[in-house]
Amino acid sequence: MLRIIDARTGEPVDAAPARRGLTRVEVHAPGSDMTNLRVLLVADLLVRALELGGTPVWALLTGGHRQAELRADAMALGIRPFEDSPDLSAGLGEAQVVHVAAEGGAAPDGVRIAVAPVETTGAATPVGEPAASATEVGGSAVSDASNGRSAGSGSPGGESARSGASSGRSAGSGLPGGEAAGGASSGRSAGSGSPGGESARSGASSGRSALSGLAVGESAVPGASSGRSVESGPPGGESAESSPSGGQSVGSEPLRGVDPAVLRLALFTRHHNAPVRLEADVLGEAQATLVRWRRAVARWARRPSRPVPDDVRGRLRDAWDDDLDVPRVLDVLRGVENEPDLPDGARFETYAYADRLLGLDLTRDLGAPS
After folding, report:
1. Hey, which bits of 237-337 come out as E strands?
2. Compositionally biased, Gly residues: which spans (predicted)?
């Protein structure tokens, strides 16, 4: 059973105290900076984890006047769409209400997940050459992409993020089982309307997209040819190229060439109660890991299928049921990757299963030329 730490008391509470009872997840994100985007990402993880446990979820977003920018960046990161928060005086008979907000942020009284801030470097953050040279699978460097889909488009997921509510909007189309994918599978980059050239501190005051607070010097991997930027080429007249994972580069000028899935994975490297600093080495390592895992998953898929080992499934569930401990989930996947006695078919099923929570589209390269 999923348990989260209530930021008000520091004590664990059940995210879904009643079996099959509706849980309302209410996100409080008044700005459009990177910290507010992380708040939305943590809420997305919570919704996915609840759905994997069979809990119906009603996911809502309340915030300030920068919601258009925040929603565009969220779509780019494969975050499922959240409904605008209506008048909740009556409610829908929820068994639990969980508020997700930034540390120190305003939220109604009730169970609360506090999300630590994101620190970004003010100067350019190149994530090109180091990630390209570090990405070797089977002895050859990975430097190309196989398609132009945006990150997260094929991630398996749970059911509609709003079971039992009346909006008619599902949380994630394009996913196996008929779920909606939050618009991430549309093949379009988001954030194109964000002005460039400033650092993203507070979206509410700067009026800028969170993603434009990260700067990159050039395309993530030289030679990548798929994926299109929604804006014209980067300064100097060069064309914007996609990252090696095939996702489309975000339109915010300072982030050209960085796959949103790389950013999503980089934000997963620290628990949500710990600050995360997005520097070149963090983004480069996330990029190398994402490329390696997607290529490995595609390779394992060619072997006979085997079920996820019970002990591995248990370790994955124990990790995300323990206050959404995603860094521990990633550690389990690294262990599966390097376990010599595990059949490749079981590795494939394990990664596909974990991706229902992570939303990294790890199975995206299935069928691509090796």
Report:
1. 276-278
2. 174-185
